[in-house]
Amino acid sequence: MKVLCIVFAVLLFTTAPGWAEQRVAGPKHIATSGLPHRSAPLREIPRGYEERHVPRQLSGRQVPGWFDPEASSRDFVDSLLQTTEGTVNGVAPSISFEGPEVDDNPGGLAPPDPNIAVGPNHIVASVNVVTEIYDKSGNSLVGPFPLNDLWSGFGGPCENDNDGYPIALYDPFNNRFVLTQFAVSTGQHLCVAVSTSADPTGSYYLYAFDFVDFPDYPKFGITSDALLVSVRNFGASLDMQAAAMDYPAMRMGDPSTLIVHSITDLLGDVDGFLPINADSSINTVGGISVGDTPGNFVGFEQGPDRLELLQLDPDFDTPGNSTLTAVNSLSVAPFDPSFCGGLFPGCIDQPSTTNDLDALSYFMMHRAATRLIDGDLHMVVNHTVDVDGTDRAGIRWYELASTGAGGNWEVVQSGTFSPDTNDRWMGSASFNGRGDILIGYSVSGEDPDDTTPPDIRYAAQIRGTPSGLLNVSETTILEGPGVQTNPSRWGDYTAMVPDPSDPSAGWYINQYIPIDSAFNWRTRIAKISLPGDSVFNDRFED
C-alpha cells in the first residue's frame, strides 16, 4: 500500500517530467460563513471554564487501507544519511522560557500539539486546548485561555465547543494573526479568528465554516490571497481534502467562502498533505508575486518514492470554477517510513520505561514553510524515516524551489540527519530571514552508552553550505528531565517559525516531560539566532 513521504537526492535523482496530461478536480464542497462577529479585545475577555477532566489521549485515527506499515518497511541504510555533526558550533538559545503546560489545559489532553506564531512584538503559543500570548522577552500578556473564549457571544459550536487541534499563524503581508481550531462535538466545523490589527491581544473577526464530515488533523497555511487548509475527512468518503478560504474578505470582516477539493479523488489513496505557508514579508521580487502564488499543497508517496505537489486555484466569485490540479510529481531517493510494523505506538525508545512514543512517520511535519530567496520561491519541509533498518528515527529534510509564481517546483537539496544512535523525530523546519535553514525536533534513546530522556534540540544550515548538510552542529534547547510513561502520543506537531524582526533568528516550541510521569507534559519556547553575517535579506522596498 502507499504511504506519503517526501524525499529528494539532487545528485542521484532528477525531477520527473511534469504531468503529460495534468489531472484536475473541481470542488467537492462549498460553504459560506455569513457575516462574521467581531470579538471584544481578547485582553478584556474573562477566562473561561476551569473544569477538570480525566486525562485522556486523543485517538490516532488511521484512514482504513491507506497505510500498510509492514508492506512499506524496507531495511537499508539511508543513502542521504548525515552521520557527523556540523563544523559550525551551534549557539544556545538567546531566550528560552516555559510555554503553556498540561496544568493550564482544561481537558488534560495528550498529545499537546504545540505550535507558535511570532510577529514583530508578540508570540502566540497554542496547545490542546488553550492559547497564551507573550511579549518577546517571555512575559505572559494574556492567558492561558480556552480558544473558544474568543467566540463569546458568537453562538453555536465555535463558542460552546473547545475541541482542540489549534493552529496559530502570523501573516507577514498584513501584520495580522490567525487562530484556528475545530469544533466537532456538535456538527463539523472549523473555527477561524483573524486579528483586526497587529496586536494579537486585541479584537478578532470570527468565522465558522461547516464541513460535511469530521475535518480531522487540520493544517493551515497563509498566502496573501487565500487561507489554505488540509484535513483528513473521517466521513463516508474517507478522503484527504484541500481547501481555501477567502482570506482578503476575512481580513476586512466581510463574509467569506470555503471551497473544498478532494486530494484523494485526484491522486488515489494518499494522506498527510500540507498547505504552503508564506513567511516572506514582501510581495514581489524579480517579478514573482507571492500574493498571486496559487495555493500549493505538498505530500509524499511511496512506490515509486516521490513528492506530489498540488495547486488549488480558488475562484471566490464563482466557486464552481475553482480547480485542484496535480502540477508536479518528483522522483525521490528511497526511504523507509515504517517503525516496528505499526502506526500507534511508533516505537521511539525512552530510557527506564517500556512506553514507546509515536513516530508519526506517515505525515509530513508542520509546516511547509515558504519564502522568497534570491528572486525565487523556496520551500523547506521534513518528515521522519528509519535511517538504517533498525527502527532508528532520523529527520529527512528537503529544500524545493520554484522559479515562477505557480511554476514547476524542483529539488534544491535534501538530507537525512542522524549523527548517533538516538531517535530524532517530531521535526519542524523553517527559513530565517536571510535564507538559512533551522530544524527543531525531539531526541530520545535507550542506548546503554547514551540514555536520553526526550530532549528538545535543533540543527541548522547556513546558506551557501554544501548541499544536503546541516553544518551548524546539533544544539540542546532543553535537556529532557523525564520520560513519558503514558500515553504513547507525543507532540503531534511542533513549530519552527522565523522572527520577522531579526533575519538571523527563528523561534521554536516543543514538548518535554519534567519528571518521569504520565499526562504531565510541558512546553518550552526558545529563540535561536544563527551565527554569521546575513547572506540574504528579503526586507527591502518593492
Structure description:
The protein has 542 residues and is mainly beta. Helix content is 4%, strand content 43%. It has 4 helices and 38 strands. The strands form 9 sheets. It has a 10-stranded mixed sheet with strand order 1-25-24-23-20-26-27-28-29-5. The chain is globular. Residues 1-20, 49-54, 62-67, 283-291 and 534-542 have low confidence and may be disordered.
Short description:
The protein has 4 helices and 38 strands. It is mainly beta. The longest helix is centred in the middle third of the chain and has 6 residues, at 247-252.
Main features:
10-stranded mixed sheet; 4 helices; 4% helix; mainly beta; 542 residues; 38 strands; 43% strand; 5-stranded antiparallel sheet
Q: SSE layout and pairings?
A:
Layout: E1 23-25, E2 29-32, E3 37-38, E4 56-57, H1 69-72, E5 81-82, E6 95-98, E7 109-110, E8 115-118, E9 122-127, E10 130-135, E11 140-146, H2 157-160, E12 167-171, E13 176-183, E14 189-195, E15 204-210, E16 215-223, E17 226-233, E18 240-245, H3 247-252, E19 257-262, H4 263-267, E20 274-278, E21 284-285, E22 288-289, E23 295-301, E24 306-313, E25 323-331, E26 368-373, E27 376-386, E28 393-402, E29 409-417, E30 423-431, E31 437-447, E32 450-461, E33 472-478, E34 484-486, E35 495-498, E36 505-512, E37 517-518, E38 522-529
